Amino acid sequence: MKRDLHSVLVVCTRRIGDVFLATPVIRSLKAALPHVMIDILVFEGTQDILSGNADINRVWTIAERPAIRPHLALLRLLWRRYDVAVSVLAGDRPTFHAWVAGRYCVGTLLPDKKSWWKRRLLNHWVPFDNLFTHTVAMNLQLLAPLGITPLGTPVVSWTDKEERSVQTLFPAIRSAHPYAVLHVSPKFAYKTWTVDGWVALGQWLIERGLIVAVTGVELAEQSYCDQIIHGLPKAINLIGRVTLPALGCLLSRAALYVGTDTAVSHMAAAVGVPSVVLFGPSNPVKWGPWPKEFPSTAQSPWHKQGSQRQGNVVLLQGEGDCVPCLAEGCDRHVNSLSDCLQRMSVHRVIEAAEAMLREREINAAVPTSV
């Protein structure tokens, strides 16, 4: 079938991290079929992570809850526009949008009775596994019906303009001086670590001789970020000042990255920076960062329980019999905190960071063979 393809739409209408983890599908298609025009449909507000991605021809956006008229207008524009449409999500709307857009449709579905009508919309579907298969691996399974060889590493991209913005805000990126990126504030509170932990880690890195750049999103509870910055007066405050693609550029030259379960941690893993990622209630089998150049045929880089390492990523998991509970915080909503992260010792994080930095220094000191 792949020789007959000229246009493909990938449907990924969910959060930013989901969009980023769909990029291996697009990269695989483009590598196998350089002539194919590949577009993607995403939610408004998630498209920035695709900035500068040369594999993508066009990004379509739709509101999470679109009004009837603009929704119908988009459906008319998409109607049978593509040779193939691929939905990387098992939901009703992504499957429907793929059916609207593609003359041949591939998707993933729950193998249950409720999905009977969606099975009628798809020419080929793959059973959706929400527990034992990583999101990247799940997405790549959709390429088999198209005869496409999978490539696993997510694609981090940025424009020249975004690179210049980073150089302006963080001139140290031009120098050879090592720096660490601490991504302290994820979008949702249940993924946050402690203020004291971030401050102690940042102070240790500065004492070790690294420049520290602090990044994150501006939270509704702004005092959280303010307290971290107040405790690290020698750090460079980039919270809310860099776009996601610009942050990708910043990460690509860092000596170390430390963050929690966010899209930015996936980006750090993909660019190859030594990364320490703090995991709480989320399932690492499905959502752990995919290390750079990890085999695309793997079901997942990670086990469900325990701290572990794969490639350039150390995944530190919170402790407790309930971990991972797969819930959004101990109070079961995104604005609640997760005790397993709140109780995570800074000594564990520093120990992992020290090991990664020592390994980097040893590798840098080893002469390359001619």
Describe the structure in your own words.
There is one protein chain. The protein is an alpha/beta fold and 370 residues long. It has two domains: 2-146, Rossmann fold (3-Layer(aba) Sandwich); 160-365, Rossmann fold (3-Layer(aba) Sandwich), CATH 3.40.50.2000. The chain is 34% helix and 18% strand. It is built from 14 helices and 13 strands. It has helices at 16-20, 23-32, 68-78, 92-101, 116-121, 135-140, 160-169, 195-207, 223-231, 244-252, 263-271, 284-287, 339-342, 346-365; strands spanning 7-11, 37-43, 58-62, 82-87, 102-109, 124-127, 179-185, 211-216, 236-237, 256-260, 275-279, 308-310, 313-317. The strands form two sheets. Strands 9-8-7-10-11-13-12 form a seven-stranded mixed sheet, with helices on both faces. It has a six-stranded parallel sheet with strand order 3-2-1-4-5-6, sandwiched between helices. Helix 7 packs across helix 10, helix 8 (195-207) runs parallel beside helix 9 and helix 10 (244-252) packs parallel to helix 11 (263-271). The model has no long low-confidence stretch (mean pLDDT 95).
Provide keyphrases for this structure.
370 residues; alpha/beta; Rossmann fold; seven-stranded mixed sheet; 14 helices; 34% helix
Total number of strands: 13
Task: Please work out how many helical segments DSSP would assign.
Answer: 14
Low-confidence stretches: none
Largest sheet geometry: 7 strands, mixed
Annotated CATH topology of the largest domain: Rossmann fold
Overall mean pLDDT score? 95
Helix content: 25-40%
The CATH homologous superfamily name of the largest domain equals: Glycogen Phosphorylase B
How are the strands ordered across the major sheet?
9-8-7-10-11-13-12
Q: How many discrete domains? A: 2
What percent strand?
15-25%
- Tell me the overall shape: globular
